From TrEMBL:
Pfam families: CTLH (PF10607). The lineage of its organism: Eukaryota, Viridiplantae, Streptophyta, Embryophyta, Tracheophyta. It comes from the Eukaryota. PROSITE patterns: CTLH, LISH. Residues 51-108 form the CTLH domain. This is Glucose-induced degradation protein 8-like protein. InterPro entries: CRA_dom (IPR013144), CTLH/CRA (IPR024964), CTLH_C (IPR006595), LisH (IPR006594), Ubq-SigPath_Reg (IPR050618).
């Protein structure tokens, strides 16, 4: 289908509600999902509630600066889950290291790095990020350092989202929601139109701008 025809397609309420429901369950907003179901009458898809509650707890641990707790529960969920996802394991351990540094526990942070992070230094792709994390020890106020992004809530949320996707894949569930797939498709369609008609004809897709109407 020509992407220019998308704007003429009518989406019914049931489809919209289904998309929203999948997003809520994907991100462990179970109470909101239950509320949506009760107010709209939409049927919730079959889902492992125990798994969702476990994912929700793990995500909360990450956001509450309890990365090691998140690691522990993730390993209970699947012993090989983090072993097969070294990048994610490294990011989780880095979060704990950063939290120790920010709490002024530099000696404990150094001991933790030597014990849990140093082995990653044997792999080239982790070296730069490991050096960035270790450099935080040199700053009295890490938030003013060039590596302040490692302390940001956005970075922490990114790690949490990546872990959530990994846990969903481990449970043989879709790692992306229909809403995310739609945004990806709209982005690709907009790029196609831009290439066909010139960059000034169709500006890059922005979800924020679209929500403004």
């Amino acid at each position: 289908m020509d992407p220019r025809q998308y704007e003429h397609i009518v989406v019914n309420d049931a489809d919209i509600q289904s998309i929203v429901m999948s997003y809520l369950l994907h991100n462990c907003f179970n109470e909101t999902a239950d509320s949506l179901a009760s107010t709209t009458g939409i049927k919730q898809p079959a889902i492992d509630r125990e798994n969702m509650e476990r994912r929700k707890q793990i995500i909360q641990f990450i956001l509450e600066r309890k990365a090691l707790k998140a690691v522990e529960l993730t390993e209970q969920l699947g012993q090989d889950l983090l072993e097969k996802n070294k990048d994610l394991h490294f990011d989780l351990l880095c979060l704990h290291f950063v939290d120790l540094v920010c709490a002024g526990k530099c000696e404990e942070a150094l001991e933790f790095a030597q014990k849990r992070l140093a082995p990653f230094g044997m792999v080239k792709k982790y070296v730069d990020k490991l050096e960035d994390a270790m450099a935080l020890l040199a700053y009295e106020n890490p938030e003013t350092s060039p590596m302040f992004h490692l302390l940001s809530s956005d970075y922490r949320q990114q790690v949490a989202d990546n872990l959530n996707r990994t846990m969903l894949e481990h449970a043989n569930q879709p790692s992306y929601t229909p809403m995310e797939r739609l945004i990806q498709q709209v982005t690709v369609a907009r790029q196609y139109l831009t290439e066909e008609n010139g960059k000034d004809a169709f500006p890059p897709f922005s979800l924020k701008d679209s929500l403004k109407g």
